[in-house]
Write the structure tokens for this entry.
Amino acid sequence: MRYILAFILLIMSQLVMAQQGLVVEISIEENVQNSQDVTMSMSKIVMGLNETASVDVEGDYGVTIVSKQLQGKRVNLLVSLHDQSNGAPKLIGDKALKLTVGRSAHYKLRANDHLYKINIDTRYGELDDDDAQKD
């Protein structure tokens, strides 16, 4: 009986751990050179570690993130940003980030006369289908 209870507890703990995922919140600020125009867009991806996920950010941008778990709470994220405002996706740029989950990273990309300021916030959270958009 003791072994059956231990086995059930082991299975339940694995199910709880399997539901934890990585929450990546993305904010994009687009500035047009020689203009006062500024566009702000935000979204989030809830994904597992060591997987690829994509999200449509307010119809203007497509973001694909490839995550790889490193030691401890460190992750490697490859973030690809696409401009979708004119219909077909156009690659703005890619950025590889190594960060500790719970921290944020900021970087800039330039494309033509546009400057994109990207902020990435990370945390652990529940893998919930209502929040996640995956490939």
The chain is about 15% helix and 60% strand. The first helix runs from residue 2 to 18. Residues 21 and 101 are 11 Å apart (CA to CA). The helical segments are 2-18.
